[in-house]
Amino acid sequence: MKDKILLCLKLLLIVLLIVVGSIISVKVWSGKEEELEAVTEIVIEKNMTIAQIGKVNGLSNIVLKNAFQLQSKEDLQKKFYETGITIEEAKSRIIKSFVLQSEDASKDWKKIAAKFVLWIAFLIFIFTLIRKKKIKTKLRNRLYFIAFVLFGIVLGADPSPMGTIKDNFVLLGSFHVIFPPRVVALFVMLLMVVLVNKFICSWGCQLGTLQDLIFRINKDKNGKPVIAKVKIPFVMTNTIRIIFFLVFAVIALVWAFDIIEPVDLFKIFKPSALGIIGIIFAAIMLSLSLIIYRPWCHLLCPFGLVGWIAEKISIIKIKVNYEKCIACGACVKSCPSTAMEAIIKHKKTIPDCFSCASCIESCPVDAIEFKAGKRQKPTKEILEKLERV
Ligand code: SF4
Ligand code: SF4
C-alpha cells in the first residue's frame, strides 16, 4: 500500500512539473500558439484593384503576392478582371496563400531550429551510450526525464513527430495545401527512424519518453512492479492503431475534421489548450502508462504506426548473436513490450522496438547488439530452449 501511494505521488509530481513548467515555458517563449487564424468569407468584385481586395479582406501583401503571383508593388494597382482568373479561383488561391502564410507566422522558427539541433545532438549522444552498452536502469530513467523536460516542457508541444503526420493530413483535408517545412520535418524524422531503429520515438519524442519513464517508475526497491503490468498482444494494439489511423485519415481528408485534436496528448505540454475531454483523456492515458508500455504510441499515434512500418528497413537495430546466446529468456522478460520475444524467435511480425536497451542490459552473456546488418536466424535448439523458459 505504501509503495502504491508513493507511486501515485511520483506520478502526480511529474504531472505537476509538466503543467507548471509548460505554462512558464509558453510565457517565456512569448506564447506563439502554433494555431491557424480563421479564414473568413472573402469579398471580391471584378472592378476592385488587388490592393482593394487586400484592404477589404484584411490580407497582407505577401498573401496577395502569392495568390495573384504579383511581380512588383505596382501590380497591386491592377484591376481584378485583368488577372484573367475567375472569382472562385481567386478565392481558392487566397485561402491557400492565407493558410500557408498563417502557418508560417504561427511558428517560432528559432525554437523549432533549437529543438531539431538539440534532438540530433541528444540522439547522437544516446546512440554512443547504447553502442558502448552504458545504458543501465538509473541512467535510462534520468535520460528519459531529461528528454521530456527538454523537448516537451522547455521546447514545447510543437513540433512533435506525431504533428508532422497529423497536421499534414488535416491541412490537406481542410485547405488542400501542404506546408513544405512540415513535409521536410516529416522526412527528417522518418530518416531518423530508418537510420537508427525508431530513434526519434525512442529517445526524442517528448510524449514517448514521458510515457516510458512513467512505465519504469512503477516498481519497488526490488525491481518488482508496484501495480501489475500488462503486455497486450501486438496484433491487438496494432489493429486498433491501424483502424484509428484509417478513421482519422478518412475523416480529415473527406470531412476536414481532426478527430485527434480533442484528445491530442501532446497538449499536456501546452496545458491551456487542453479542454475538459483532453484533461480526462490525459489522466487516463498517463495512468495507463504505469501498467501498459507507451499506450499512446501503441494504440493511437499516427507516427507510431508509420514509424513502425519504416522501422522494417531500419539500418541499425537490436540483434541477437546466437553464437553467444544461451536462450535464458532474460531479454524477453526485461523487454517492456513483446518486441524482444519476436526478435529473438525471428518472427515475421516484429512489434515496435523502442531501442530502450533494456534487453542489452539484461543479457548475462552480452549476446545482444545494436548494430547494422541483417538479423540472424536462431537455431532449432535455441528456439526449443526459449519455449521452455
Ligand atoms: S509513437 Fe510515441 S514516441 Fe513516437 S511520435 Fe508517437 S507519441 Fe511520440
Ligand atoms: S528491450 Fe525490447 S524495446 Fe527495448 S531495445 Fe530491446 S527489444 Fe527493443
Note the overall shape.
elongated
- Please provide the count of β strands: 2
Rounded average pLDDT? 93
What topology, given as strand order, has the largest sheet? 1-2
From the structure provided, what is the oligomeric state, counting identical versus distinct chains? Answer: single chain
Count of alpha/pi helices: 18
Number of domains: 3
Helix content: 55-70%
Distance between the termini: 31 Å
What is the strand content?
A: under 5%
Low-pLDDT parts are: none
Identify the bound ligands: iron/sulfur cluster
What does this entry show, briefly?
With 389 residues, the protein is mainly alpha-helical.
Describe the overall structure.
The protein is an all-alpha fold. It has helices at residues 2-28, 50-57, 61-68, 87-106, 109-131, 137-154, 161-175, 180-195, 199-204, 206-217, 234-255, 276-288, 295-299, 302-310, 330-334, 339-344, 358-362, 380-388, and strands at residues 316-320, 368-372. The chain has 18 helices and two strands. α1 (2-28) runs parallel beside α6. It has a two-stranded antiparallel ribbon. The protein folds into three domains: 2-32 and 108-309, no CATH class; 50-106, no CATH class; 316-388, Alpha-Beta Plaits, CATH 3.30.70.
